[in-house]
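Course exercise 7: structure representation. Students receive a sequence record and must write out the corresponding structure in token form. The form below is the worked example handed out in class, using DUF1996 domain-containing protein (318 residues). Read each field label carefully; the graders check that inputs and outputs are placed in the correct fields and that the protein name is recorded exactly as given.

STUDENT ID: A-19
EXERCISE PROTEIN: DUF1996 domain-containing protein
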Amino acid sequence: MFRRRGRGNQQQPTRRPTPSPSPTAGGEDECADLGPFLTDFVDIRQVQPTSIDPPRGRGGSRGTFVSACGTNRNGHNNPDNFIVAPGVSNGAHHLHDYVGNLSTNGFSTDESLSAAGTTCRFGDRSTYFWPVLRDRKVDVNTGDPDGNVGQVLRARAVTLQFRGNAVSRVTAMPRFLRLITGDAKAATNGGANARAAWTCTGFQNRITTKYPLCPRGTGVVRILDFPSCWDGQNTDSANHRTHVVFPDQSGACPGGMKAVPQLRMTLVYSVPQGPSFAVDAFPEQQHNPITDHADFANVMPDRLMAFVVNCINRGRRC
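STUDENT ANSWER:
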């Protein structure tokens, strides 16, 4: 049974098959060694139901706040990552979808983000981004040096929900807090930092680390949960992880760390039937679904963040 909460439940990448000259899920012969492979897909109906959330304790915070930022209809895409590779063009080697802050690129700073426009309501200038999903059967972008070929599929729905802590109230995130979830190199690094969670609409109680093959009429869903236990001092750290960590299996934060609103991104896609889609990735990751990941930087006005915290701690849905 797959459970994403807690440190003891590490995801492990699927063993990769030896590339062969025969066609695979990636499409044509010449793309066979790029991945993904048929073993990277699973019929969602074959996945056992599970829970991805700890039970809420009596002292838990039950409210939510949703930041409505659209689905990137404005086409804000680039292969940068100012958190992990600041000051570098194509630092990610795969294409990102962005919502929220309109200026985000590899050279973004606190100052540039503060001055930019946003697609979000209520002046939320935060930046939310993730690797694109592609239909790899479509003969597009075939010259990409990193092997990210196919037609980009835009999410039909994007939900950016800030949630409470299972056992305590939450406190405000500091402005310019940087967060990452998942590991873009999990296929080679191992599963210690992997947080991939795939499912289908109507089957959200069935979570898998593989690409889900969904029944006709349902959509592919990516669930990206962010860490939510802050060290109380830093907006970033050398590995971009130790300043904000995940709660334990009970939902509690480690001693000395503060619970902040937990961001859950839920992305829904309409994809062609069959094993024909894949997430953009570093070339050596072979589009393994366990590499799914996302990034966030908080650029909410302080008054908005205070409103978010109040909604969550009072058990409201905002």
